[in-house]
Amino acid sequence: MLTESAFKVFAQIENGKISPSYFCIGEDYFLQEKMIDTVWKKIRSKYPDAEKSIFYGEEDCTQALYSELFNVGMFGSNRLVVYKNVTDFDKVAKKLLIRYFSNPSPGTVFVIFYKGKKLPDFVSSMGKHLKFVDLSPPRHEQVSEVVKEYFKTKGYNVDNEAVELLKLRAGEDLSILLSEVEKILIYVGDRKSIRAEDVEEIVGFTKKYSIQNFRHYLSQREKNKVIECALSLMDAGEKMPFITSVLTNFFIDMWASDEKDGKKRNKYHRMEHASYRNSDFRAIFKRLVELDLKSKTTGVPGRDLLIPVLTEILLSE
Known about the structure:
Largest sheet: 6 strands, parallel
CATH superfamily of the largest domain: P-loop containing nucleotide triphosphate hydrolases
Order of helices and strands: EHEHEHEHEEHEHHEHHHHHHH
Strand content: 5-15%
Number of domains: 3
Helix content: 40-55%
Number of helices: 14
Strand order of the largest sheet: 1-6-2-5-4-3
CATH class of the largest domain: Alpha Beta
Structural class: alpha/beta
Shape: elongated
CATH topology of the largest domain: Rossmann fold
Distance between the termini: 49 Å
Number of strands: 8
């Protein structure tokens, strides 16, 4: 049993390789909607009169769903059947699905969106007529690879600097990121190599930057990225009191993390703690209090106050 990435499956579908049934696991809303849209567009391009039916796990629709799957009407032989928000399968459902997967209806594409954390055991042997698709939202550290993969499925190469700049300017929401990718592809035309200059030319600061990104760069002590991220947050409308609060809460977490509790922290928190293990937290908190006071009582632009403080904290031991 092999679970394939969303963008690999999208590319297969766009190239005309459509499986009779897809079992999707993962709850990224954008990827789910793109899965439906990709299949539906491909079916309609070949069969303009095709039909689409959507059923939901929250509804009592079992009988209607299986009637739709097993009863092929004279004028409905080409269709897409979608079953969303599925949380469980009773014995009858399992039996019917195994029967259907073993002998799917001709002309029907069936897509299930399962909300469980792992694939149910009963579908494990259904690989002949069933493709497993991972629609999980990418974690922060996975976004770059997801973007690279999307470029690759479109036939383009992209360098690391371009990907990082794209994330910085567009954020990490896939719907926005990939929308910006499409703009870049139109801009470069037949050229198959994407550079940071292309991103800089096309992509503005389109979305408020994620605080999770800001914390991540803080944990890595990546001074330039921390400053650039903070400035982009401010460009998107965040005020200095909010930025100062985020910084203060981050360093309170670091200061409160006692070494003896290290085993209780996850890998990410241990990494953060290790980056600031030898820091002078008294000095850091003093600078943050000063930053907060000056931002509220002086007319100095926030970025002019913030950059020196971030530089001092991130370069100090």
